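--- STAGE predict ---
source: upstream dedup step, 1 unique chain passed
mode: sequence only
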Amino acid sequence: MDNNILFAFLLTLFAGLSTGIGSLIAFLAKDMNKKFLSISLGFSAGVMIYVSMVEIFVKAKDSLILATDPKTGYWLTTIAFFVGILFIAIIDKVIPKSHNPHEIQKYDENSKNIKEVESKRKLLQMGMFTALAVGIHNLPEGLATFISALEAPSIAIPIAIAIAIHNIPEGIAVSVPIYYATGSKRKAFVYSFLSGLAEPIGAIIGFTILRPFINDLTFGLVFAGVAGIMVFISVDELLPTAEAYGEHHLAIYGLISGMAIMALSLLLFL
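--- STAGE serialize ---
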């Protein structure tokens, strides 16, 4: 049993810390520019939207159907999804506009660019919000990976690899804006790394505290809510910022590329 627990924890740790790999990939480009930022943020939005709607929402619905019945399960999934959107929207609303990372600053007709200080402040806050969102989303993923590894290691391995693949662009989404805001690759990497630690933390919580209460109902509700949070952040934060710091088509190309890569990663581990 102890060996199974260690294996499950290490597998979950591997999946979570792949956000750090995304951060390192981002820094391979020595002379990062706004086009790179635009494409990266669009790419990450594509990953988050696709995985939320195609994978997380569906898994949540399956769990809730098992816990109830097909009609009730679908209703609960939909309600939890929009509750997740409402939750993050309320947080977004109560933050004063001047401190809200989702409020894109307008270009001044009389100046060439957004004020650099405001631009960096907004990027830093956006990176921190993204790190928080990724961390929240990684908690139930950690639970799922850990519990599946305890019960069926052969199934858990491809799940962990798939999660690791889609955590890489999430690491890019966290690290790139923080690097642009602070000029510090170390800070960017640390925050990206910490957001990934939520996955093994979720595993620990699941095993030591929540495991007796984990069932299809609670798992499905949490997953559906997380899907809503990720979709809202993608369309309200990542995409507008991608366009503000680049070109519309670059952001969209990044979005479609992120969806395609995420789709391929899921197909490879069916």
